[in-house]
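[job 0417] fold request received: Glycoside hydrolase family 16 protein
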Amino acid sequence: MKHPLKRRYLAATTGLLLLPGLLASTPGSLKPDQAKPPRYTFKELLWSDEFNYTGLPDSVKWTYDVGGTGWGNNELQLYTKARRENARVEKGHLVIEARKEALNEKNPYTSTRLVSRAKGGGSLTYGRVEVRAQLPSARGIWPAIWMLPDEWKYGDKSWPANGEIDIMEYVGYRPAIVQASTHCKKYYFRTNNQKTDSISVPTATTAYHVYAMEWTPETISVFVDSKLYFTSRNEHTGWEAWPWDHPFHLLLNVAVGGDWGGKKGIDEAAFPQQMLVDYVRFYKMKQQ
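[job 0417] inference complete; emitting structure tokens
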């Protein structure tokens, strides 16, 4: 960076006159009335589950998506409600377990899709979400840590127009690779232009890692163990490209098979499979 005194000296020797304010408008510097980009912190805890109890997930904080319809991806599991075999808290962590068992004629597997309750404080608009988890490992498994809107208000009030934030997705046939994505009307996976990136986490299935997302009016940024590897940016072109301006809640699930998870088949002998969650925490966004 050039020193201001040196800059004035150069102007004088070349016969130029630096008028007041000219120095502030030189390339690469801010004009006096130009606002600096806002900076944010995420230190105030808003909501959490530390899983320091035993039994079913806390019904004040969590509810369930239930069914075996394939969930738009040709998945094979039946998601159950309040069934200890598929979702329980024990030894200080949440267990979401996918099992090879048929409770009906359609679905050869069972699992859980756990949803944070908005009325229980489990939703936010802007902020930081942290989930410390250890992932299942079998070929054919598809665990996810992700977010959907509380209210479906844009476009035809359906997916993907109202947005999705994938903090962590993992498919068992790609060992050690976790993925983050955002989906909306303009950018989503069916048109193969979703905003996405991946990172290698060699011990994802053998150790706990912190999967985190920081969401501001301008960006959605995703981290593993404090390492930033994905950012989706607000283009300011309308809700079609940025529907993330109202409350979203969290989902934790382990799918089996499906268009992505089952792309390389399913190792049926590897079940049951578990995703273990040490804690879930939401932090408030504050502008500095």
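[job 0417] notes: The chain has one helix and 18 strands. Helices lie at 4-13.
[job 0417] exit 0
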